[in-house]
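Q: Hi! First time doing this. I have a protein sequence and I read that you can turn it into a structure. Is that right? Here it is:
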Amino acid sequence: MIEIKKREKYKLYVDNKPFFIKGVGGASNIELAAKLGANSIRTWSCENGEKILEKALQYNMKVMLTFELEKEDKCYFSENYKDKKKEEIRRFVKKFCKHKAVLLWNLGNEVNLGKTSKEAWKFIEELADMIKKIDKLHPVATIIAWADKKSLNSISKYCHSIDIVGINAYAKYFNKIIENYEQSLYSGPIIITEWGTIGHWESEKTEWEAPIEPTGMERVKLYEKSYEYIVKNSNVILGSYVFFWGQKQEITPTWYSMFAEWDGKGNLNGEPFAVVKLMECLWKNNKMPEILDISEIKINGKYGKENIKIVSNEEYDVEIVLTKKVKKLSLLVEVQEEEKEHGIAGENAIRPKTVEKNRINSKKFRMKGINKSGEYRLLVYVLNENGFVGTANVPFKVT
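A: Yes, that's right. Below is the predicted 3D structure, encoded as structure tokens:
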């Protein structure tokens, strides 16, 4: 049985034992997550739900399982949509409510990014009430983007059957979560259901609106600071799900990914980034070791925020700064066109075309010119002998 208890603070209990969520967002690399100290995974839908639950059970992991809900407000005025969704959720909960891997049920992900009327929140309440009549063993949550006071107020007003609110928040405004929570009408427990690096929408940008991605070393610092905030506020926060435990294309192949992609040519094979080691250390309360990564990257002596422009067909110089000395350096360097089709939250984002890809063994190197004007990005991977990959990239424009 999963319970939430409150004395001086909120706590989650699994079979009468305290359970602080040390979670990962994504259902890949479950075995590794468990080995490193994670105890839960979070999904964005119930697709392959049975398979995920069985895999989680195999490694003694719990699952926060999400039922997808539309962000478009018009759906919540459609009886046809609501009836189909209720039946889909009813069948799934009935089938799996006694599965030992279930931690809690979640209704929707960032529904508040749509034009959310009271009809949407009332439908979430209707679903939560239905689930609790079927399953009295597990809490029910809903997830919102940011600690949005308006949404928290609406949940407090309309969603009395919701036990927990999940909050997706990224590094730049992370320290506003508790402040917004305390200023809202909602007073129940929360889970940080997505967190990690800075969001691309809140990062510095070039004059042509290309976002500046943190280097591998900068990402480690951002993740560490955010986790400290989670633990510090564990009187209200029941735990978290770090994002993204896998690899995805969104702006770049590395921005939110905690693992490298598989390029099919033996250069990148899904290796973990340094933030994976950091999470192990945070979950196990160990000190982070020094890992080879990139702290700075420049083109022609300029950082990305300085609006780097290169004349077509003109060679350009690249320099990276590493976090530690290394006897034998191995870099993978790729130039790609800037991503144009972002999709929604990276969904259906198209990986940009690669213009050039080379293996290099020096921190300073020269790249050949590009003959076509446009927006580009230079990506550098440090291939680490300890099995990790360091990352950095920089946007530039060819004129």
